[in-house]
Design a protein that fits this description.
Length: about 325
């Protein structure tokens, strides 16, 4: 039994060519969902005999919407697949992954999604790439959520109506939350899955990615923040406390009480040291602490847009 594949992307260039080159004959059918590329990605997909789906450009693009479109295209075929491998267009599938993932899914009928080791292709290219590579180094076993590259069971995905197409990011954890509510399981296994090319080389890119994370925390907490899930609540509270509450408190104290209150600014360097003592590298500790500021910006952006009832817009970093 072979799974089908859904690839999503926009203007990924050589990264997409590498993605196509990694597919081989592992899939029964491959659908590429394009979100308005102008770089030749569509022609490349057709040359590789991959079916192309064009998203309606009058509706905001989201990864969730693209994945749903790919699933719908496969569901409409005679003999639709039981399993779909989702692949981001800037990733390549590692040899042996599909065999390992399919074997796991067949042996574990309660598993809705299974993912493996996603690694950064060029971690040495920048500190930001290296941080992303470390971010994905998470424990194997039964887990709460997966990322964009994952093998999904179609029956489970259909039961929860797929991804939420309105989310600009964080759609995978939100989907996994709904799957777990339906008593499905999410697993990460110790197998090489994909290589990702973040191409993150500038501080501004890192800032935008962290800002998007903050937006996701706020939106996720607004949707599922009530008990028992408390979805994204801890991350949101941490961002608001370190990136907004503490600066306001120290500034107010310095103005109204004593300039010596500004000595409290040392709390951020001390937090970096505390995180290092917990086993994080110096770069991880520094950027995890610094990241609270763009995360707050993203959370406030979500709150402002919701207050004004404005449509969500993508926050892109490349």
């Amino acid at each position: 039994m072979k799974p089908a594949a859904v690839i999503i992307g926009r203007n990924e260039g050589d990264r997409f060519l590498a993605c196509l080159g990694s597919l081989g004959d592992q899939f029964s059918h491959v659908v590429y969902v394009d979100s308005g590329s102008t770089d030749g990605s569509i022609a490349a997909a057709k040359a590789a005999q991959v079916e192309v789906v064009h998203l309606d450009t009058t509706v905001s693009f989201t990864a969730a919407r693209a994945r749903n479109a790919g699933m719908a295209q496969l569901a409409a075929k005679a003999g639709p697949p039981d399993f779909i491998q989702f692949i981001d267009g800037d990733c390549t599938v590692q040899p042996g992954w599909i065999d390992a993932a399919m074997a796991f899914m067949i042996a574990n009928p309660a598993a809705a999604m299974v993912c493996g080791r996603r690694r950064e292709r060029f971690p040495e290219a920048s500190v930001y790439n290296r941080l992303i590579d470390q971010e994905w180094d998470t424990p194997c076993g039964l887990t709460q959520s997966c990322g964009g590259d994952t093998l999904g069971r179609v029956a489970a995905l259909e039961q929860v109506d797929g991804f939420n197409p309105t989310l600009i990011a964080g759609e995978e954890p939100e989907l996994c939350l709904r799957l777990r509510r339906g008593r499905w399981e999410i697993w990460r296994i110790d197998a090489e899955m994909t290589l990702h090319d973040a191409a993150l080389t500038q501080f501004a890119q890192w800032w935008q990615r962290a800002r998007r994370a903050g937006y996701t925390y706020a939106e996720g907490a607004a949707m599922h923040g009530a008990p028992p899930e408390l979805h994204n609540v801890r991350a949101l509270v941490s961002a608001l406390a370190w990136g907004l509450g503490l600066p306001i408190f120290l500034l107010t104290s310095a103005i109204l009480i004593s300039p010596w209150a500004l000595a409290g600014l040392l709390v951020w360097p001390l937090q970096v040291l505390r995180l290092q003592r917990r086993g994080l590298s110096g770069a991880q500790a520094l950027f995890l602490t610094l990241g609270k500021f763009p995360e707050v910006q993203g959370a406030l952006t979500y709150g402002w847009r919701r207050l004004l009832r404005r449509r969500a817009k993508l926050i892109e970093y490349k």
